[in-house]
Amino acid sequence: MRKKLSVLTTVAAALAAGLMPLTATSAAAADTPSRDTSKDCGSLQLTGELPAPPAGTTVSQVVTIGPDCKPQLGTVQYTPAPAAARQQKLAAADGQRHQVKSASEMFDCCKIRMTGLYTTSEWNTAGGRITDAKTTVTHGWNREPWDAGWSLKTPSQSEDCLKDCATSTTKAHADFGYKGIFDVTGAWYANSHDTSVELRADGTSACTFDVQLRHSFIGWNWVRSCS
After folding, report:
1. 221/2 Cα distance (integer angstroms)
2. CA atoms within 13 Å, Cβ hemisphere of 170
3. Distance (Å) of CA 68 to CA 19, 64, 110
4. Can you tell me the distance from the alpha carbon of 219 to that of 78, in angstroms, rounded to the nearest whole number?
5. Of 74, 70, 12, nearest to 42 (Cα)?
């Protein structure tokens, strides 16, 4: 999931995103990151919920930080899920085994994924109850050359019920920090993702997402999905 970029590619992408102008700096200012503050939207919190998609589909939505620094909600879209996911959905319908995946990802305006939080939940049902449930949490982030870029800081996960449940809810959290080409101090950028997935005894589910950005920029995109 980690994507390595050349210095030229990374810098070009940042310039296109308006994250940092390339300027000469004095030795005294070497520890102060250069930024185009006219496009800095400051701290921003984004939240939303997606319904469980019909069998064989993925439901997704893109939220874009607009020119006024306010979130612009894209259309909730339903698209065919990958073939393997469709097969699992069909198997679940026959064997009362269910699966849902969620993704919460932050992209810059050049479509480079900065950070992401992902869950895969599986549960069995019988007699109007969830007999057992399990959720796996994974993470993704963008690295730069020389061991720089985004990094995972403090992930966590909790479940309220795993066996003989009316519902089972998993909450996942991930803090990401950044120290690299666009800020050598490591104190400017930070993304925090929170995902809550509710599993139900009737085989349905719901995904809720939250993202907290320490600094955000016009043109950044938050992509959330359930499949």
Report:
1. 19
2. 23
3. 16, 11, 19
4. 23
5. 70
pTM of the model: 0.78
Amino acid at 221: N
> For the segment 147-158, what is each residue's pLDDT rounded down to a tens digit?
999 999 999 999
Q: Which two tokens stand for residue 97?
A: 């085994």
Cα–Cα distance for residue pair 108/219, rounded to 1 Å: 7
pLDDT one-digit tens code per residue, 99-149: 999 999 999 989 999 999 999 999 999 999 999 999 999 999 999 998 999
Taking phi first (over 0 means left), then psi (-120 to 50 degrees means alpha), and beta for anything else, what does residue 167 get? beta
Under 8 Å between Cβ of 131 and 163: yes
